[in-house]
């Protein structure tokens, strides 16, 4: 007896605002422009996706997260956290960083997003889901709608909708 092939798993048909799709594409271009080949380090963002990149004053390796406060930005900017490649962060650390990023943009951005930029495919990996889970809790504490994205050179993935887009060659 021949069984039918299982249906292909595709991105849910979610109608996204054109401005959001354009912002996610701009963010992908930034990731590509940062490093056209090789590894792109994980970056954790909050604010307006696709906004002008903030100055490199975000927290980095060795930052004392208990006292770190991201500098306030303008309404078109975003706040940034750059964990070190060897830095081990538990759920509490990720929550504190997400909370600090959210607080930094809450008065400047009307509807902030949480997103990650990194190497690889936009499919969520365990580290992405850990960050998104912590950000989800932090956004709830701040009274914000929990929305997150993973953006790479190869595409993007949105949480909680699961919408995604990939491209073979992203060009300006």
Number of strands: 6
How many structural units, i.e. domains? 1
Rg over alpha carbons: 17 Å
The SSE string, one letter per element, is: HEEHEHEEE
Structural account:
The chain is α+β, with helices and mostly antiparallel strands and 172 residues long. The protein has a single domain, classed as Cytidine Deaminase, domain 2 (3-Layer(aba) Sandwich). Helices cover 28% and strands 16% of the residues. The chain is built from three helices and six strands. It has a six-stranded mixed β-sheet with strand order 2-1-3-4-5-6, sandwiched between helices. Mean pLDDT is 81; it is low at 3-10 and 72-76.
Describe what is shown at a glance:
The chain is of the alpha+beta class and 172 residues long. The protein is 28% helix and 16% strand. The protein has a six-stranded mixed β-sheet with strand order 2-1-3-4-5-6, with helices on both faces.
List keywords for this structure.
172 residues, 3 helices, alpha+beta, 6-stranded mixed sheet, globular, Cytidine Deaminase, domain 2
Give a topology summary.
Elements: H1 18-34, E1 43-47, E2 78-81, H2 91-105, E3 113-117, H3 126-141, E4 148-152, E5 155-159, E6 164-166
Parallel strand pairs: 3-4
Antiparallel strand pairs: 1-2, 1-3, 4-5, 5-6
Helix pairs in contact: 2-3
């Amino acid at each position: 007896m021949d069984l039918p092939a299982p249906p292909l798993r595709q991105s849910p048909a979610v109608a996204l605002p054109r401005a959001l799709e354009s912002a996610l594409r701009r963010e992908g271009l930034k990731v590509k422009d940062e490093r056209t080949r090789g590894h792109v380090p994980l970056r954790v963002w909050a604010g307006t996706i696709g906004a002008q990149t903030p100055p490199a004053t975000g927290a980095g390796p060795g930052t004392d997260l208990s006292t770190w406060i991201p500098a306030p930005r303008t309404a078109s900017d975003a706040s940034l956290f750059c964990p070190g490649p060897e830095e081990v962060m538990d759920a509490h650390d990720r929550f504190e960083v997400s909370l600090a990023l959210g607080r930094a943009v809450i008065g400047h951005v009307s509807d902030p997003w949480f997103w990650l930029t990194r190497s690889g495919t936009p499919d969520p990996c365990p580290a992405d889901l850990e960050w998104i889970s912590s950000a989800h809790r932090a956004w709830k504490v701040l009274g914000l709608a929990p929305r997150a994205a993973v953006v790479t050179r190869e595409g993007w993935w949105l949480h909680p909708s699961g919408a995604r887009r990939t491209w073979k060659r992203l060009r300006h």
